[in-house]
Design brief:
Blueprint lengths: L7 H15 L11 H8 L3 H14 L2 E4 L3 E4 L22 H22 L2 H19 L3 H19 L2 H9 L1 H9 L9 H15 L3 H19 L10
Helix pairs in contact: 1-3, 2-3, 4-6, 4-9, 4-10, 5-6, 5-9, 6-7, 6-8, 9-10
Length: 235
């Protein structure tokens, strides 16, 4: 069993989805209390809260303090291991790619914070400014290409040729994964905001902050696609 993709909070997340589907909960219906859910699913309250938080971000549920957890309306999201029109199903699922990016690009951002040159930082700043313009113009294909280039430049600046080779060899898959979050046009600007946060950490040469900002960005991008995954806890 994969310790990343089947971590306890994600098992709880999938179990709650199944509960909603199989027991016929509809929009506006209240789910059992968090205490009862934790007992029913056999997970800790902490794992349950993390699962509920991810489902809330996906729009599957609404958490109303003091009232309970309610099923949301107008939810039609892909499962975590699939996505509409994904052309690389025979090679890897979108979930696989987002998890790979989380591990690889987070580490690369941490390295880049202490290795990138002034010219490389300037190029990233230009990229972020250009993405803002493309998003304002609703040109999501152009924004996705800039997204890909932003991440490629960080991998290049990290100085790790092996990681850059993985991106280069799988460029089509990586680019496709960077198009997926733009299916929600109303949330497209979040990508630019997250890139700005990464850029600020890189400009400060803050390695830990850059790594964390990149990992948060990849997980948020997955959530905008309708995919939730739980990262392994660090010791």
């Amino acid at each position: 069993m994969n310790s990343i993709s089947r971590a306890v909070p994600e098992v709880a997340l999938q179990a709650i989805r199944k509960l909603i589907a199989e027991q016929g909960f509809g929009a506006g219906d209240a789910l059992p209390s968090q205490r009862d859910l934790a007992v029913q699913l056999g997970v800790s309250r902490a794992s349950l809260r993390e699962a509920l938080s991810s489902l809330s971000a996906l729009g599957v549920i609404s958490i109303q303090p003091g009232k309970g957890v309610f099923v949301q309306s107008s939810v039609d999201l892909p499962r975590g291991d699939a996505a509409p029109g994904w052309p690389f199903a025979a090679q890897a699922s979108p979930l696989d790619i987002f998890q790979l990016r989380y591990a690889l690009e987070g580490f690369a951002a941490g390295l880049a914070a202490v290795t990138l040159s002034t010219d490389e930082l300037d190029a990233l700043e230009d990229n972020v400014a250009a993405m803002r313009n493309e998003l304002r113009a609703a040109d999501f294909d152009a924004a996705a290409r800039l997204d890909f280039e932003f991440h490629r430049r960080i991998l290049l600046a990290s100085g790790n040729q092996a990681m850059l080779s993985i991106l280069t060899a799988s460029a089509d898959i990586f680019l496709e994964s960077q198009k997926l979050p733009f299916i929600r046009a109303e949330r497209a600007m979040e990508t630019w905001q997250e890139h700005r946060k990464i850029l600020r950490a890189l400009a400060r040469r803050a390695s830990s902050a850059a790594q964390k900002a990149m990992q948060e960005h990849v997980r948020n991008a997955a959530l905008r696609t309708g995919i939730a995954f739980v990262a392994p806890a660090t010791s």
